[in-house]
Records
---
Amino acid sequence: MAVLRNDSRIILHLDYDCFYASVFEVEQPALRSLPLAVQQKQIVVTCNYEARRRGLHKLQLIKDAKRICPDVVIVLGEDLTKFRNASKELYLLVRSLVWGGRVEKLGFDELFLDVTEMIDYNISVLNPNDLTNSFFHLDRKDPTIGTAYDATHFQGSTFPVTEGSPVPTDLSSLEMRLLVASHLQGHIRSKLEHQIGFTATGGISTSKLLAKLVGSVHKPNGQTTLLPPYQSTLENESNVHRFLDEHEIRKIPGIGSRMAQKLRAHITGQEDSDAKVTVRDVRLFPGMGPPLLDKILSGLGSAKGIGTKMWSVLHGVDNSEILQGRDVPTQISIEDSYGRLDTFEAVRRELVTLSRSLIRRMRADLLDNETPPGRWRAHPRTLRLSTRPRLPPGSETGRTYHSNRISRSAPLPAFIFHLDENMDALAERLVQESVLSMFRRLHPEKSGWNLSLLNIAVTNIVESAGDQKQSSGRDIGKMFQQQETVLRDWTVQEQEPEAPVDVLPPDSEQAESDDWEDDEPLASLDCTLCGCPVPLFAHEAHMMYHSVPE
Ligand code: TTP
Ligand code: MG
């Protein structure tokens, strides 16, 4: 069955290198030459490349990092403010360069750019007789704004690697458009580096899926273009297949470990096979196609059209749009985790603390930056309280570990927007008048529970009249529309059976990770959002990373 890929767009992907560590390096350039690790609770959430050269890696226990590299410099990264600010500054710079602001933010440190219009314009003004001295126009109205480039070469690396390949004679060919795009990507990366101080790794192709995957080929501080042909012919296999086919299926965004396991079992004929199964193995397996994929993947949930979606992904087809960022987050969420929280008074105290942080964040993120008294740019409509009851010892399996949150939602009381009241008083009132009754509905028993986490969030944020309405760029679930569906449909949402719950998007702000001390097995569990295998002890930190508002 043929799957149609729309190759008319040009999409760039950017991933900042060791992002949190770079934020510290930009503040203190002397750190650049030292092994630097960023700590959240007991975990290295990221480290710079000097530290990686010495054997450190992301999501490692601090104690292991110190053992492996005793002179590692450790900085605390629990307060996300500086990362959020840096991320916003970088995003705004990129958005100012891309026509129509067609930039989608994914978490703190990834961007997708739809630069189709810019490339088509710049192709139309190329002088075929003097490609070496081309000029990339960054502004259609002012022909002096832009940058000189040599349109006879790709900037950066390509897949497959080519040496001195002749410039395409057809200037409107996909190859030429990608070549011009590689220079735009180079220009944007150089701006990020020289204007703000961050290096990034880039991918250039025709979809988010392909741009992201090909971008990871030359990391850090590199960029890679996926060269045509993108369609196979009788004589030539497409480069999309050549590139994608070699990937282990688990490496493809959207293919989680349970799907990968089912596919592996079918291809090898063995349950629990850990053999390396590639995209090619699945794609070319006898009888393979959407109906067989539907059959293989059935039983994991009730996903509609999963076979067709998987078939598309295996062919590198991702026609999802770039979702432009909104200027306000879709939700604001604050949480903390606890070793032991089992008295009502302790819960009340923590709820007041969390509510205070929530109100502070609302004021920081949702108020106009103008001088006081300010104006609310957006109003959340819903208040949500979530808890995670600690299960009795022995009953906690790896998979329930992160997903047994329960929650209650209620309308957000209007007094929270009063700017003339101080935040402490507002927090007390919020807890007294709203949060405690939600808590009692979640935990009707007076005692006997023991909570490992509390989370308070405002959701359903509506921008005030007059503000620009755009779709959310922050929602990780929109990463790749097809794959979002894949992910969501296969996400295991295990809840307490009797819980009157909403299904929760994982989110956090003040995530702690003390659970690693509870003799948890040091296994990994796939993140239900991005599919990355994350060690159990690092799940809280990982979810914190997904909780990032713009
Ligand atoms: P990544 O892009 O995964 O990592 P990175 O930018 O540090 O390194 P790389 O050069 O490999 O791209 O994540 C971006 C930031 O998010 C990272 O700097 C730290 C943070 N983070 C967490 O807080 N928890 C996590 O589980 C992960 C994966 C990242
Ligand atoms: Mg990164």
---
Amino acid sequence: MRVALFGGTFDPVHRGHLAIAKAAADAFGLERVWFAPAGRQPLKPEGTPTAFADRVAMVRLACGVDARFEVSEVDAPQEDGSPNYTVDTVARLIEQGTGERLFVLVGADSFLDLPRWHEPERLLGLAEWIVVSRPGFSLHKAGQLSASQQSFVAQGRVHLLESVHEDISATELRTRLEQREDCHALVPEAVLGYIREHGLYRAE
Ligand code: ATP
């Protein structure tokens, strides 16, 4: 089975996330895409994200659009409050023998940031990668990728999927939600309903 781990803060999940998961699933014949909200994202220390349970619930609703999509709690908050490192999650999935072929799905911005992640060299080698284009982030400018990232691209372990142009970010979306703008084009209806019901993303 071809499976992709799609980690993120998902605060909240948006149509950009769904579009990139669909593009990756179609292009690489993925049978499952696991959307895994992170309990505590090590590189986003500023500000507290929306409660994990709410982010999971919104992702679960969003995943209803495609039978290949599932929410996963592999990155649930740790008991001692420590951050969730992708390298540990992927290693654990491999140990548990989940998926014959495991991909890690990320946007171009995240992949460019990878050298700052925990144990990037080890993480790069653990799975295959699908890196999806994101407006404003180029993978091709000289010096953007580290030597080991380039070498994994050359070995065919990193697959670039550059047909996606989704100009949506959760940060911008939160601002729009706070300002009570119409966000139907950016967020699935069921997720908007959840946000309304639970009073999320309201200005203080
Ligand atoms: P924020 O604006 O708060 O950084 P985000 O929109 O990037 O949030 P995340 O939950 O941090 O959302 O992203 C999860 C994953 O999805 C990351 O790998 C990110 O690169 C990717 N991603 C999110 N939005 C897009 C997009 N519009 N195009 C391509 N990749 C995206």
